[in-house]
Amino acid sequence: MTGTNLTSSLACAVVLSFLLLATLVLPTLFKLCKTSRLEELPSDWLERFSPESYRPMEGLLNREDFAFLFRQPGFDLSLYRKLRYERLQIFRQYLDRMIVDFNCLHLIARLALAHSSEDRSELLIKLILLKFRFSGSVLAAEFRYTLCRFGLRTLSARALISELEEMCTQLQAISLAQAA
User: Fold this and answer.
1) What is the predicted pLDDT for the residue at 91?
2) Are 71 and 144 in contact (CB under 8 A)?
3) Rounded-to-integer distance, Cα 50 and Cα 89, Å
């Protein structure tokens, strides 16, 4: 291979990698950066919200379920593909809803801090760091989701759920501090 061909191949690989990354990352970044509007939330949303509603995500793409199906007499590959596709779609819906819910919780927490009469900058820093961690976890989940679609790995939602629970904990801490 000549130097020109190698350079052209490398440039094509870089451009394709950039396009693939942009295709995967940009839509998720837009979702993560989209700010929620408090007016859009039902008045009892916060009381009804629970991170526990996301627990089913943990088992949706569990390798053991698919291995069990594979071992059954009369195993049908089309059934396997259909189940996997449906579970991927359900996982996607959960993930999209989780991003919206996290953003709503984050907004409520920021508004509570903004209306606080005390300096709560340490809690604001925690909220900012939590947003970055959650965003990183979502981007990692998106990458694993893409690999999972091609059958290259499984996907767990434990880290995402954990950070959603942490967001709830921070919001409770803010609420308790304001009530005191």
Assistant:
1) 94
2) no
3) 22
Which residue bears the tokens 């008045």?
Answer: 43
Give the span between the Cα atoms of 111 and 55, in whole angstroms: 28
Question: How large is the greatest C-alpha to C-alpha distance in the chain, in angstroms?
Answer: 73
Whether residue 70 is contained in a domain is answered as yes
How many domains is the chain built from? Answer: 1
> Does residue 5 lie within any of the structural domains?
no
Helix/strand/coil percent split, the chain, to 5: 80, 0, 20
| Residue 115 pLDDT class (50, 70, 90 cuts) | confident
Boundaries of domain holding 97: 23-179
Within-domain flag for 60? yes
3-state secondary structure of 54: helix
Q: What is the pLDDT of residues 58-89, one digit of tens each?
A: 888 888 888 888 888 888 888 888 988 999 99
Let me know if residue 1 belongs to a domain: no
Q: What is the pTM of this model?
A: 0.83
> What's the DSSP call for residue 36?
P
Contact status, residue 141 vs residue 155, Cβ threshold 8 Å: yes
Query: Residues of the chain with pLDDT > 90: what percent?
Result: 31
